[in-house]
Specification:
By secondary structure, this protein is an alpha/beta fold. The protein contains 7 helices and 8 strands. It binds NADP nicotinamide-adenine-dinucleotide phosphate (NAP).
């Protein structure tokens, strides 16, 4: 079957950076499945993108729910037979939550950021193998970079978000593992840092807007065949793992 339009799935896309990635991809002509835990919120988020001419459809997706992930994979298989772009964007940060023990913060954070990302990626790989230009983009954070954390002059040296940083370090490790495993199958897998961005996750602090933050993920979703795999990048270039 001829592939006329690329098809992307973005997790956690009903708000924040995920929504901006979905909108940016739609404006570039990509058909977007907008992953959302709550379909009503996904519908509200999708409506303006559709009104602007984008092909955007909300799809129910909770990374902690195996059934939700499996149903979505079956639906994409049935309706499209393939997936071209997977953006693992959904993520949480619970380090500032005083009501949870550190162990509980870690348990919940790993469940979404690491196990959830792994679950979704595993479910989508068979569909990505059906694409001639498959890309996986993991939305990570430079806060997880061991290389930068060891630099005393790094601007975020004072930031201490232990469970979040550990979770994104695990995402970075998975990025390298998948990049190696999938290199010969034509699937490029990279990690991107959107930068410090004003979203619900940061209590709307941070100098970047979601649409500025989305740019790097969009560029790596649309990488040419000669683009890299297994790298960690932000807008300024490559980051140390
Ligand atoms: P956000 O506004 O809090 O959005 C997070 C999204 O993830 C929401 O759509 C949320 O859905 C979804 N989500 C949460 N738990 C989920 C689950 N179990 N299953 C599926 N979706 C789930 O955060 P953001 O700032 O846009 O962050 C997006 C990504 O960028 C995250 O991976 C974050 O770590 C990363 N990042 C952000 C910054 C920053 O400064 N903002 C910097 C570096 C990296 P609900 O609306 O249903 O809760």
């Amino acid at each position: 079957m001829e592939q006329t339009k690329k098809l992307a799935l973005v997790s956690g896309a009903n708000r924040g950076i995920g929504l901006a990635i979905a909108g940016g991809l739609a404006r570039r002509g990509v058909e977007v499945l907008l992953g959302c835990r709550d379909l009503g919120r996904g519908e509200l988020a999708s409506a303006p993108l559709r009104a602007a001419g984008g092909r955007v459809q909300p799809v129910q997706l909770d990374l902690t729910d195996e059934g939700s992930v499996d149903i979505l994979a079956e639906r994409i298989e049935r309706d499209y037979g393939r997936l071209d772009i997977l953006i693992n964007n959904a993520g949480i940060v619970l380090d500032g939550n005083p009501e949870l023990s550190v162990v509980e913060r870690m348990r919940r954070t790993l469940a979404v950021n690491v196990l959830g990302t792994l679950r979704l990626t595993e479910a989508m790989i068979p569909l990505l193998l059906g694409s001639s230009c498959a890309r996986i983009v993991n939305v990570s954070s430079e806060l997880a970079s061991f290389g930068l954390r060891s630099e005393p002059d790094w601007p975020y040296a004072g930031i201490d978000l232990p469970t979040y940083q550990a979770s994104k370090a695990a995402v970075n490790s998975l990025t390298l593992s998948y990049a190696g495993q999938l290199q010969d199958r034509g699937i490029k897998v990279n990690a991107v840092c959107p930068g410090y961005t004003a979203t619900e996750a940061t209590h709307f602090e941070g100098p970047r807007t979601p649409s500025q933050a989305a740019g790097i993920a969009i560029n790596f979703a649309l990488l040419d065949a000669d683009g890299p795999t297994g790298v960690f990048v932000n807008d300024e270039g490559e980051l140390p793992w």
